[in-house]
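Hey all, quick one. A colleague (J.T.) asked me to put the 5-amino-5-deoxy-1-O-phosphono-D-mannitol job into the tracker so the inputs and the structure tokens live in one place instead of scattered across chat threads. No bug as far as I know, just bookkeeping. Sequence used:
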Amino acid sequence: MCGIVAYVGQQDAAPIIIKGLKRLEYRGYDSAGVALQNQAGLSVFKKKGKVAALEAELAGRDLHATIGMGHTRWATHGEPNDVNAHPHYSFHRKLAIIHNGIIENYATIKQALLKKGHSFQSETDTEVLGQFIEDIWENTPDASLEDAVRLALREVVGAYAIVVMSEADPTQLIAARKGSPLVIGVGNGEYFLASDATPIVEYTKDVIYLNDYEVAVITNDELRVTTLDNTLTTPYVHKIELELEAIEKGGYDHFMLKEIFEQPRSIADSMRGRVLADAGTIQLGGLRDYMDQLARSERIIILGCGTSWHAGLVAEYLFEELARIPVEVEYASEFRYRNPIINEGDIVIAISQSGETADTLAAIELAKSKGATIFGVCNVVGSSIARATDAGAYTHAGPEIGVASTKAFTAQVTVLTIMAIATAHRKGTITDALFRQLLVELEGIPDKVAKVLESAQKIRDIAYIFTYARNFIYLGRGMNFPVALEGALKLKEISYIHAEGYPAAEMKHGPIALIDEDMPVVVIATKDGSYEKVVSNIQEVKARKGRVIAITTEGDTNLPDMVDFTIEIPKVHDVLMPLISVVPLQLLAYDIAVMRGRNVDQPRNLAKSVTVE
Ligand code: M6R
């Protein structure tokens, strides 16, 4: 969703900000803008569309400035257009503001300002907040802009990350956050601000994660952080491990393709130092002190959205099958508005790639208020969810830039698999022999994923045939049911083809009415406990002339005669199958989307991290 970049230092701010906005494009947005401060005063430029459109708008202008801020907006209040784009000037143009998040009580504040004679250019809640800050600044004796920001934010209901600049103090940026991320990069005589570390990493590895309810006042040689009630805090400087190559395409046409092909490495990274097959142990550092509690738990509640929710469904099978613990998997967005029953002895696991998903964060807060112990399975180190949970395990997949989640999913499933196996072993619900077998098989997964990737050309050929399909059905049973859901989600989000995933046996209860010669049906038909049943389901589809693409186990000689196309994958233990079977579905979705000319990395309407409800 919206992205923030700001700079103060000795260098030219504009190129740093524009480059930073490009690095944040993956988050999803529909307009972009910058504010720069120089001898000419505080200037704002903004444009609907991509950062490239903003660049065209800036061409030929004198942009020399050593302080400035930029924004990519994902529309919430008001359509995407030049006026609603950020930054916004305040009423008397004394300040400019950029903002991520939603000010929930903006209408009440707006009414009060209208009564005072204010008028508004845009439909945004952000402009209201900017005018509100200015109004407090003008009408509170002796208040500095920093005081006004603090006073205004105390009245605000909602989520925000903001940066404010003013002509009155042309050397200073004021930033604040609640519920929306903000990272400060600490350079030599310069500071960077951004929604995540990607725009910062090429300049410095030293970062500070601003906390909720903190206000940072930043000049080129000073950073001061206080709370909303003006108590000075001591920010902790983290060293980030992110390398520049990790956020560049590295020769691939799209980030999504790069990330699909990175999976042998990213899955290995998720296991590194954790799965020790030779020693016959699992080490989960972040959960070490909680493993007994997990093994004793009477129920596990898993929270997530989208792909992370699908990883949760895989984990449901894993924990129930291996550790014999009942599991409920909940959409975080629904859970947060229920009055869920959480008992002593329950464990909550929140799954999130970004660690910033607003619904998941809110669901965690609700679970916390009911006394739950919460584990996080997050990819982004230092993210809000990682910090809001009691303990957890990072997935270590590396930055995922493509909006459609791929390597993050397999990394989540890897970590959840490790957790389930470790819990089962501790509880004694699996034998030592099975424990050791699973560790050995887990260590072999990266090579097996690499083997699946060798089928990329075959999958591309199949994709070509189905490029103009209007609908798709995905079927799977057992642990491959969540994989079917994930395959359908991948296809719809990047190709805009309508696709639905079902448990294969559910087809007879309705979706079978859709089957005809125009309906492609992707069936995950690997040799596992439900193979024979899935074969029957395939026959039902074929009897109605549906066109079947089957994901089969290497060496299956039965299915090629029965279906239209097969994509073979290596044999693995049933509980590890989702790590392999999802990969051809990712490639199929990618290829179809590319062949349809879609913007694969930044599909329409989607945001990488959904930081508003
Ligand atoms: O960052 P999170 O894992 O919390 O994000 C959850 C969903 O928004 C995300 O998985 C979304 O569904 C992806 N676009 C799926 O590809």
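Adding what we noticed when we looked at it: The chain has a mean pLDDT of 95. The first strand starts at residue 3 and ends at 8.
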